[in-house]
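Duplicate of #3305? Posting structure anyway:
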């Protein structure tokens, strides 16, 4: 019997389809760690990376009978994982500012539905300048920490070009305050959207 490491991915797929469930486990064991690293490099958050990988294996299990043996299994696997990573990024992008407390009782198409609509989401963010967009994207979409933003996003780095960077507490506090201002801007824009939607709804019923 060939050693497990000598069995090709494609053969393991065929073994699984032939009624050998352990073959699927071997595929998972073979790629799990590498997939998590791949997903983490896209998402920069461990939990999101693990969720994306888990969803990848569920998708593989659901569609494995559709797998074309002429296609390299690893290419198919990473293609699906990449798609699941993008799904995680889309989920993050739906997280605008929290609903202000004074608007929690409003029942309309408003903010909650706007957050699920790409055009509405872009409308809420359209008032941000380039720097604000960079910071919003880094924290809300990519899930980066303030320290990571200061170290990795060159346009937001406080140190002059070519100088070694030492992230200071005051730099982090300054960035935190800047991000808080951005979220206030987005929240105000969202409230404007709510008022507009409510006015439109009222006019429709007049």
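Output from current build:
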């Amino acid at each position: 019997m060939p050693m497990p490491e000598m069995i090709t991915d494609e053969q393991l797929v065929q073994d699984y389809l032939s009624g050998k469930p352990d073959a699927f486990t071997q595929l998972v064991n073979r790629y799990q760690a590498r997939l998590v690293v791949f997903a983490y490099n896209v998402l920069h958050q461990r939990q999101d990376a693990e969720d994306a990988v888990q969803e990848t294996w569920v998708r593989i299990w659901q569609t494995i009978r559709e797998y074309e043996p002429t296609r390299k299994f690893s290419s198919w696997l990473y293609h699906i994982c990449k798609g699941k990573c993008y799904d995680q990024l889309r989920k993050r992008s739906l997280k605008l500012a929290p609903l202000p407390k004074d608007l929690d009782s409003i029942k309309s198409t408003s903010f909650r539905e706007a957050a699920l609509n790409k055009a509405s989401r872009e409308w809420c963010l359209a008032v941000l300048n380039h720097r604000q967009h960079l910071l919003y994207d880094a924290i809300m979409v990519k899930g980066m920490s303030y320290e990571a933003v200061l170290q990795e996003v060159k346009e937001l780095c406080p140190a002059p070009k070519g100088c070694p960077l030492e992230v200071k507490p005051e730099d982090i506090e300054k960035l935190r305050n800047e991000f808080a201002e951005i979220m206030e801007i987005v929240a105000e824009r969202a409230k404007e959207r709510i008022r507009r939607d409510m006015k439109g709804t009222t006019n429709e019923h007049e």
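Confirmed duplicate; merging threads. The mean pLDDT is 77. Residues 101-205 form one domain.
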